[in-house]
Write a structure and sequence with these properties.
49% of the residues lie in helices and 0% in strands. The protein is mainly α and 83 residues long.
Protein backbone atom coordinates (compact mmCIF):
# COMPACT_ATOMS: atom_id res chain seq x y z
CA UNK A 1 0.00 0.00 0.00
CA UNK A 2 1.36 3.41 -0.92
CA UNK A 3 0.26 6.78 0.38
CA UNK A 4 0.04 9.66 -2.06
CA UNK A 5 1.02 13.25 -1.42
CA UNK A 6 -2.63 14.25 -1.89
CA UNK A 7 -3.71 11.81 0.84
CA UNK A 8 -1.21 13.32 3.27
CA UNK A 9 -2.17 16.88 2.33
CA UNK A 10 -5.87 16.13 2.85
CA UNK A 11 -5.21 14.54 6.25
CA UNK A 12 -3.02 17.43 7.40
CA UNK A 13 -5.50 20.03 6.13
CA UNK A 14 -8.31 18.30 8.05
CA UNK A 15 -6.14 18.10 11.17
CA UNK A 16 -5.32 21.82 11.06
CA UNK A 17 -8.97 22.68 10.44
CA UNK A 18 -9.98 20.68 13.52
CA UNK A 19 -7.37 22.62 15.51
CA UNK A 20 -9.07 25.85 14.44
CA UNK A 21 -6.71 26.97 11.70
CA UNK A 22 -7.95 28.42 8.44
CA UNK A 23 -6.81 26.35 5.48
CA UNK A 24 -6.82 27.35 1.85
CA UNK A 25 -6.30 25.44 -1.37
CA UNK A 26 -2.75 26.23 -2.53
CA UNK A 27 -3.51 26.96 -6.19
CA UNK A 28 -6.09 29.56 -5.11
CA UNK A 29 -3.38 31.67 -3.44
CA UNK A 30 -0.66 30.89 -5.99
CA UNK A 31 1.28 33.62 -7.81
CA UNK A 32 -0.76 35.16 -10.59
CA UNK A 33 -4.12 34.20 -9.11
CA UNK A 34 -6.68 36.74 -7.98
CA UNK A 35 -6.14 35.83 -4.33
CA UNK A 36 -2.34 35.42 -4.65
CA UNK A 37 -0.49 35.67 -1.35
CA UNK A 38 3.03 35.53 -2.77
CA UNK A 39 4.80 36.95 -5.82
CA UNK A 40 6.68 33.75 -6.56
CA UNK A 41 6.78 30.12 -5.47
CA UNK A 42 10.22 30.91 -4.07
CA UNK A 43 8.55 33.19 -1.47
CA UNK A 44 8.34 30.74 1.43
CA UNK A 45 6.81 33.12 3.97
CA UNK A 46 3.37 34.63 3.39
CA UNK A 47 4.45 38.07 4.57
CA UNK A 48 1.03 39.69 4.95
CA UNK A 49 -0.15 36.78 7.09
CA UNK A 50 3.02 37.03 9.15
CA UNK A 51 2.56 40.79 9.55
CA UNK A 52 -1.03 40.32 10.75
CA UNK A 53 -0.01 37.58 13.21
CA UNK A 54 2.89 39.61 14.62
CA UNK A 55 0.56 42.59 15.16
CA UNK A 56 -2.12 40.39 16.77
CA UNK A 57 0.35 38.65 19.10
CA UNK A 58 2.31 41.83 19.96
CA UNK A 59 -0.20 44.70 20.10
CA UNK A 60 1.93 46.73 22.53
CA UNK A 61 5.06 46.62 20.37
CA UNK A 62 5.62 49.69 18.18
CA UNK A 63 4.89 49.06 14.48
CA UNK A 64 8.51 49.89 13.54
CA UNK A 65 9.82 47.16 15.84
CA UNK A 66 7.33 44.65 14.45
CA UNK A 67 8.43 45.47 10.90
CA UNK A 68 12.08 45.06 11.90
CA UNK A 69 11.29 41.62 13.32
CA UNK A 70 9.53 40.64 10.08
CA UNK A 71 12.54 41.73 8.02
CA UNK A 72 14.94 39.56 10.04
CA UNK A 73 16.50 36.71 8.05
CA UNK A 74 15.94 33.42 9.90
CA UNK A 75 19.18 32.11 8.39
CA UNK A 76 21.10 34.77 10.34
CA UNK A 77 19.74 33.54 13.67
CA UNK A 78 20.51 29.92 12.77
CA UNK A 79 24.19 30.77 12.40
CA UNK A 80 24.12 32.39 15.87
CA UNK A 81 22.66 29.25 17.48
CA UNK A 82 26.02 27.55 17.83
CA UNK A 83 27.66 30.48 19.59
Amino acid sequence: MSISEATIEDAVREWFTRLGYQTLYGPDIAPGERAAERRSYTDVVLVERLRAAVARINPGVPPEAREEAIRQDPADSESDAGR
